[in-house]
Each structure stands twice: as C-alpha cells, then as structure tokens.
Design brief:
The complex is a heterodimer of chains A (about 325) and B (about 550). Chain A is about 75% helix and about 0% strand. With about 325 residues, chain A is an all-alpha fold. The longest helix of chain A has about 40 residues. Chain B is of the alpha+beta class and about 550 residues long. Classes of the chains: A mainly alpha (about 325), B alpha+beta (about 550). The interface between A and B is large, with 54 and 54 residues.
C-alpha cells in the first residue's frame, strides 16, 4: 500500500512538471500565433486587423505568471479553451476527433508488434542456432533502425504513389459517411494498412530482442533443465515454463512502449495525413496554437504516465517480492 | 416583374464577366474539389472568423472587388457605388431583390448592421475603416443604399469597403457573442450555402437556392479536403483527386503535367515582388554604392531558372513594384535606373573598388573601407526551398565579386520577429500585393508601418514620402496619381533599400478532367487566386462540369 501511495505521489509530481513544461515550451518559441496563422496569407492582412485578432484570441492578456495560473486551473477543470487554428472550436473537441484515430493506430499497431515480437523472440531463443534465430532478429533490427519517417516515405512512395495499391491520406474515404457500417469500416481498414505496417516494422525489433534475451536467461535456469530431464514436450517447456517467466521484464517495456508509441507516431501520421494526435500536434506547433499544443502534449504526458502506472501495478501483481515489502 | 429584371441583370453581368463563356450555357451539376491546408474542418460559417479561408467568397460575398488584371470592377452584392462631389462620402447601392439563402430579404438594414458590428467588434472591421477613423459615419439612405461619410476626401476608400461582406442581421443578432458565432445553419449570400456535411478531413457545401445570379453557379457543390502541406497536395494533384491547386509544386512539368498531359495544367502569372531587403541602419548597407553593387552582381535570369524552376518573372525594375503592376511602371525610371536591374559583375567590382571595399588582409575576399572584415547573413525561412536556393545563389554571385555572404535559414517565428524589428543584415521577403501599388509603397515606407510589417524596417524613410502616401486618397485626377507613383518609384530606385529579384508566380494548377471554365493564359479573365475573396467567387461561378 505504501508502495502504491509513493508511486501515486511520484506521478502527481511528474505530471505537474510535465504540464509546466507544456505551458512554457510553446511560449519560449519565438513567434506569435496570429502572425503564424496568417503567414500563409503572406502579409495581405492589415496589421491593425491582426491586433484585433490577437485580442480576440486572448493573447495580449496578463503576465506569464497570470497566464500560468489560468492554465493550471484550465487543466484541472478540463476547460482548455478554443483552438486558434480551428477557432472557435474547443480544444477538447479537437482531441475528441483526433485522439481516437491515434489510439486506434497505436493500439492495433503496438499490440500486433508486441505479439509478433514476443512470438518471434520465443522461437528465436528456443531454437537458437537455427535458421530462424539467425535471420529474423537481424532483419527486424535493420528495418527498425531505419527512422520511422524513412520507412513511411518509402512505403508511401511505392505502394501509394507508384503502384496506387493504397490511399495516400486520411483515415477513411472522406466522402463516406462515418459510422459502424461495413463499407466505412472496410475503408478505415484499407487506409490503416500502410501506417500500421510502418508502426509494426519500426517497433518489432525491440520486442524480439527483449523477449529473446529474457528467454535465453530463463532457459539457462535449473528448472528448465529439470523439465527437459523429465521429458516434457517442447511446446510445454517453451510456453509454460520459459516464456511465462521471461515475460516479466517485458511487461515494463510494454507499458512504457504504449505511451511512447503515441509520441513516436507523429511522423507516421504526418506522412499519411492520418488525422491523429501527431499530425495535429505538428500543425498546432507551426501555428503557435498554444491551447491546442498544450492540450495535445497534456494528452501524451497523461498517456505515458498511465502506461507507467499500469506497469507498476502489473509488477506488483506479478512479483510477490514487491507486495511483501 | 422585379424578379425578371433581377434575373436579366444577373445573366448580363455574368456574361460580361467572361469573354469565352458569354455565348454558351452550361448544364448544372458536378462538383469542385479544392485542397485546404488545415488540421480539420469544423462547422463554422462566419466569414469574419475564417482561418481556413473556405467561407468568405463562397458562403458570403463581398460588395464588389477590383480585378487589376483587367482593370475593372466586378460588382457582387453592390450594384454600383459613387463618390460624393467633394469626395467626402461614398454611397453604395445594393442589387434589387437580393435574398439570404433562407429566403429572407437582404437589404440596406443588413449592411447597416454589418458596419455596426464592425464598429463594436474589432474582427468585423476587416479593413479597419472604422478603427482608423477614415469612415466617420454610416447612414442608411434607403432600403438599398448606404452612405459612408469620410473624415477627409479619400478616393481610395472603395478598395477597402469592397472587401466587407454583408451579414444577415436576423441571424447574427441572435448570437450571444459575435466574435465566436459560428453561423451553424450557414445562412449566407454566396453561390453555395447548403452544407452537405462537415467531417474532419472533408467538407462539402452545395448550391444556394436563393442566389442572385439565377443561372449560377453551374457546379452544384464545392468540396474542401484537408491536407498538411504542399508536399501532400502534390501527390493528390498527380492522382487527379483535386481540381484546383494553389500550391508550390516541385518540378511541375515532370510531376503534375506529365501525370496527365491532356488535363493537368498550370498558369503562373506574376504576383507580388520578391526582394532582398537590406538593413540600411547597419554597415555596409548604409552605403548606397554598396547596395547598388549587390544589385548588379546577381544574375536574375539564372536565379529564376535554377533556384525557382523558371516559374517566377524576372524583376529588373528598380522602382519597387513587380510585374503584377506592370501597367504602373514608369518608363522614365527604366531609362535612368534600369542598369540597376541588369547583371554586370564588372560594374559591381568597379563600384566596390571605387568606394574602398578592397581586399585589405589578402584573404581573397573584400573588406570594409576601414580594413575590418566584411561578411553578412541573408535571412530566409527554413524549408521555403525556392527562397533558400535563391539566397544560396545570391551568396555565390556575391562570392564571385569578392563579398562574403551566408545563407541564414531560420524558423518562421524567428524570421517574422527579426524582420519586423529590423534585426537582420539582409533578408529575402515578399511585398504587399494589393489592389493598387500605393498600398505596396505604404508598406515599404510609411513610418507608421515600422515594426508592424516585414517590409518596413530597412531604415529608408522620409516625412515627404509619408505625406505623399497619406495624400494619395485626396488626388482626384489620374495625372496627379501617376506623378505620385513616379515619385515613389524614383525614391525607391535612388535609395535602393531592397534589391528586386523576381516577381513571385501565382501558384495555380487546374485539372480539366472533370471541370472546365478556368482562367487561362488565353482567357485571363481574372487573377487566378484562391485566397482572395471575390476573385475566388468569380472563378467558381464560371466553372462547369465537362
């Protein structure tokens, strides 16, 4: 219980530091949101008009400290104000239609990568020396070491632009009425193929490696030798004995990986113009859309922290030594 | 009867607005797809709160707009306007029988309400005519006419008044806060007002049942699609998902046109002037001879050809305006100062030698007359590739005459602030493109613009020039106006606070695979821009399904 309490306190402090950075970072960047917003209009707008717009968005009010005070209140009250890019739409509404897409991509992508990675890792460890173990881990490592944006651009170019097998942008056919009907879901799946593929390719290697290494350690332990000596079946030893024990250290990586995947997905979303958090974050930063940047970063921070917290809880549940202390 | 005349007027006006389409009638139907750089579309149909530039000119129309390409006024909701005898007032007459898209009458009361809002809520004062005090009073003359009383004789006020878009009083007066009102039912006066759907990545709006031009638009709907940047629009154009692009497309002949040569076209007429601004408050730019040497040291033809894919128009006119305003260029300036726009590295070397910029320490590069090192940065926005390449080439030309200059690519925010505050050595930037060159000169020189805008912080100003700009609106005959413009051009050529390089192209790509009726080099009925209200409306109303 004390362990849990100290963790919660830690998360609260971390959260506070993170949101303070969220507040400061956009303000430390040079430039003015209204100017950036109308940069595309290339000076065709009258500056007195710009001042009016600035006042309307509320950028001329108060010292940094006063702004910070209002910001902290807004974070805890959930009223994050209107977005500048999409004025007067509320930031929370923007999160409402961007976050589900990111969650969908990250969820499916990371879970598939983890499942595939764990399976590959288990096989590679158990059959070390075989062809699988000598080919799969190095190949996934090479693919994963390419920056996500390069992988994404390559797939975009060949399978989107050249071969025209897959759509170039959006999460679904934009002319289609969204809803839980077959045609739309099919369109969503079709649009998700390339981005998902990139996510899996990019993160697969780390799961393969973590699982393989962890497995190799476990396989060296006496209980495995004992099981082998008893003549148990290979699959039983591999899954029930070795994998089950080896998965413990993987849990932390999984939980943290989920959180970081949200942040790491930014470039993938940008390349495929996928309407998620990453894509929106880039636009918001360029536009100095403070409210939106803050809200998106807040979301990412929350996600990372929640991921970590789940890892803590899982550890607590899996490892009896922690519960005792 | 009333309706009949309105219809007749509408048809004749539409016919007058284009030459080629005048005879033919096109069937209704089809839609137009336009890319918009935005995160997501939202259900907001307020033309004065329109960050994505999708509502103004489409759901709402302005009173009128001026088409410099043909030097004529296109009346939209206004039927005409006229200055009072002393130029101290201007009266606008609305067309007869105008209706809002919900069938309510659109009349002078709505116009009065629009300007009442402009007075109360800053964002509705689109061109600042009330905030600046140029308009002192707005008076309803009758149901269709409104008079604007002016603080002083001002024959240029219609440029600004034309941009205001009348709002439906019966809708807006219900709003709690006009600054955030979204006009959710999209009640407007433009060609399309019926919202088919608004989704995050696409929005579609269809024909206005009560539009004043009875036969227009030909197309039923306009579809907007969301993109992040030009890089994403390019493949969508190549795959023919988009009909009308207004974006920089790299190597367009090979990428866009080659993908479907029969239907993919572009037309890049001259737009605003692109200059290299020199900070004359700093050495060595405080020396006119040095500034002149820079100007003749660069080969504009090569820069346009190599750095900008040949799309811009070379600007060798030293008088401060680009080829969009070609009609206003004074030939006398060309005669006297034309050499400043011609590539002549020998002359540049002579100028530098004569003024003491020689290699003092023997490192092969020139130094300041006092022997100190001569080196400066040319500032440009990071990622604006054609400009970065332009500046790169300029530094290479300068190196050829022994001057050390560097590309200084910075993020937009830094660039924006430093140019406004005058904290730069040299910087590439555009100029204001507007209805008339006097507005461009105001941005270059007027002391009230220093610190407000990128173009005004170069340090060359004069009280006399301020006065010329301020008094332009009181001039009533063409000769006086031309004299003022000549003087401003001479002032620019004599002082050279910036080096003209080229006139930006107007980015305009169009596909004829589904839609015809575009402005083309053969039928240039309007400057083909999407972001200008009025021009956008005129083009949309001329498009038809193949």
């Amino acid at each position: 219980m004390r362990y849990l309490f100290s963790r919660l306190l830690f998360y609260f402090v971390a959260f506070f530091i993170a949101i303070s950075f969220n507040f400061l970072l956009p303000r430390l960047m040079p430039g003015d949101p209204v100017d950036a917003l109308f940069a595309g209009a290339a000076g065709r707008m009258d500056p007195s008009q710009m001042d009016a717009v600035r006042a309307m968005y509320g950028f001329s009010e108060g010292t940094l400290l006063e702004q910070y005070g209002r910001y902290v209140v807004s974070v805890f009250s959930g009223d994050l104000g209107p977005s500048i890019l999409m004025y007067p739409t509320e930031v929370t509404r923007v999160l409402g239609f961007t976050f589900p897409w990111t969650l969908f991509l990250v969820g499916i992508g990371v879970i598939s990568a983890i499942v595939l990675g764990l399976v590959f890792g288990i096989i590679a460890a158990y059959r070390r020396g075989g062809w699988f173990a000598s080919i799969v881990p190095p190949v996934t490592a090479v693919i994963s070491s390419m920056p996500a944006v390069v992988t994404a651009l390559l797939l975009f170019y060949f399978f989107g632009l050249k071969l025209e097998w897959f759509p170039l942008s959006y999460a679904a056919d934009p002319a289609m009425e969204p809803g839980w009907h077959g045609a739309y879901l099919k369109s969503v799946a079709y649009h998700a193929v390339l981005p998902l593929f990139v996510i899996i390719m990019v993160s697969l290697s780390q799961w393969v490696m973590v699982m393989r290494n962890s497995m190799i350690n476990v396989l060296g332990e006496d209980m495995v030798t004992m099981a082998e000596a008893k003549g148990l079946s290979t699959s039983r030893i591999m899954l029930r004995y070795a994998a089950r024990n080896a998965v413990l250290p993987v849990v932390t990586s999984v939980a943290m990986g989920l959180g970081f995947a949200v942040a790491g997905q930014i470039f993938i979303e940008i390349v495929f113009n996928y309407p998620g958090v990453g894509n929106t974050l880039l636009k918001a930063i360029n536009a100095r859309d403070y409210p939106l940047v803050q809200a998106l970063l807040l979301l990412i921070v929350l996600f990372v922290l929640i991921g970590n917290f789940i890892a803590d809880l899982t550890y607590l549940w899996l490892d009896p030594r922690l519960r005792k202390s | 009867m009333k309706l009949l005349t309105a219809a007749a007027l509408g048809v004749s006006l539409a016919a007058a607005s284009t030459t080629v389409l005048a005879e033919s009638e096109h069937p209704h139907g089809g839609s137009l797809t336009v890319p918009i750089i935005t995160t997501a579309f939202t259900e907001s149909f307020n033309p004065y709160v329109d960050p994505t530039n999708t509502i103004a000119g489409i759901v709402f129309e302005p009173l009128a707009f001026i088409n410099p390409m043909q030097d004529r006024t296109h009346y939209r909701l206004a039927e005409r306007y006229e200055y009072g005898d002393d130029q101290r007032s201007i009266t606008y007459w609305l067309r007869d029988g105008l209706q809002w898209s919900d069938g309510e009458t659109l009349d002078a009361d709505d116009l009065m309400y629009t300007f009442k809002l402009a007075k109360e809520v800053a964002i509705y004062d689109l061109a600042g005519v009330l905030a600046s005090g140029r308009v002192t009073n707005v008076v309803k003359v009758n149901d269709r006419a409104v008079r604007f009383d002016l603080a002083r004789p001002d024959t240029t006020i219609h440029w600004d008044l034309n941009t205001y878009m009348p709002l439906p009083e019966h809708i807006w007066s219900q709003a709690a806060d006009p600054a955030t009102f979204t006009n959710p039912q999209a009640i407007g006066s433009g060609p399309v007002t019926e919202v088919a759907y608004v989704r995050a990545q696409q929005m579609e709006i269809c024909r206005n049942p009560h539009y004043f031009l009875e036969d227009r638009p030909y197309l039923d709907c306009i579809k907007y699609r969301a993109f992040n940047d030009n890089g994403q629009i390019q493949p969508a154009l190549m795959r023919d998902e988009i009909d009308w692009g207004s974006n920089f497309i790299a190597d367009i002949d090979k990428t866009y046109v080659a993908a479907d040569p029969e239907h993919h076209h572009y037309w890049y007429p001259a737009n605003d002037a692109i200059n290299i601004y020199l900070n004359t408050k700093r050495a060595p730019f405080n020396d006119l001879a040095f500034r002149q040497a820079l100007s003749v040291a660069i080969d504009r033809d090569m820069i346009v050809e190599l750095a900008a894919y040949g799309y811009p128009t070379v600007n060798d006119f030293p008088g401060g305006i680009g080829h969009h305003f070609e009609a206003y260029m004074d030939p006398a300036i060309y005669d006297q100062y034309g050499w400043l726009g011609q590539y002549d590295p020998d002359r540049a070397r002579e100028l530098l030698d004569a003024n003491g910029y020689v290699d003092a320490n023997g490192d092969g590069m020139r130094d300041m007359p006092d022997g100190s090192e001569l080196s400066f940065d040319i500032r440009v926005v990071n990622g604006w590739t054609d400009w970065v390449q332009t500046v790169q080439m300029v530094t290479e030309y300068l190196a050829e005459i022994g001057i050390e200059a560097h590309v200084n690519a910075v993020e937009w925010g830094v660039y924006d602030t430093s140019l406004k505050e005058g904290d730069y050595d040299a910087a590439i930037n555009w100029s204001l493109l507007s209805t008339h060159p006097i507005q461009t000169y105001k941005e270059y020189y007027h002391t009230s613009r220093i610190g407000q805008i990128w173009h005004a912080s170069h340090g060359v100003h004069s009280a006399h020039i301020d006065e010329l700009i301020d008094n332009f609106g009181t001039l009533t005959n063409d000769a006086d106006r031309a004299a003022t413009l000549s003087e401003l051009q001479r002032f620019t050529a004599e002082n050279m606070p910036f080096i003209p390089v080229f006139s930006n192209p107007t980015w305009f790509q169009y596909s004829t695979s589904r839609v015809e009726g575009w402005p083309t080099p053969e039928n240039p009925y309007v400057h083909p821009v999407f972001y200008t209200v009025g021009k956008k409306t005129l083009i949309f109303n001329n498009l038809y399904q193949k």
